[in-house]
Amino acid sequence: MKTFKLVSLKISHPQEQVKSQQIHLIDGLVINKEDEERKWLLEAYVGKECEELFTKLKEDEQEVKVEATISRKDNDPAAFITTIQSVAVMEENMSVLFNGVLVGKADMSEAILSELIEEGFQGNVLLQEFKKRVYEKKNTGVKVK
What's the pLDDT tens digit per position in 37-66? Predict the structure, then answer.
């Protein structure tokens, strides 16, 4: 097994109007189980404001696509298809355990462009904002709007 730090997590909602949601992480781990099924575990330590979302996804036993940035913020995210194994609520925070398979690296350019289109950017303004965000992602790992 190999263990990595989870530094960013975005989940996709295929049935919702909001296609994806950035999750505010307090901390997290990614574990490559290196088994024959090529399974990965992702543990996200998050605030209780996410309790309803993750409890519903677990109860519905829905597959959840996640984009996880591993080790450093300037790394491109890796895409996983997961199910939620457990939701453990503590006093102020909670732990969410995902079990899934790696489906490939997410194309950062495509993700940025999709986000900008959803935000209503067009024409030259779209191009300028796209260049700005790609530069920021590559050089700082920080998303600035």
Answer: 889 999 999 999 999 999 999 998 888 889
Task: Give the global pTM.
Answer: 0.71
pLDDT, one tens digit per residue, over 133-145 is 877 766 544 444 4
In which element (H, E) is residue 132 found?
A: helix 123-139
Report how far apart, in Å, the C-alpha atoms of 32 and of each of 4, 38, 105, 114 are.
Answer: 8, 8, 15, 29
- Strand segments (E) across the chain: 2-12, 20-23, 25-32, 39-47, 64-70, 78-89, 93-105
Gap between the Cα atoms of 53 and 66, Å rounded: 14
Residues facing 134 on adjacent strands: none
Distance CA 56, CA 54 (A): 5
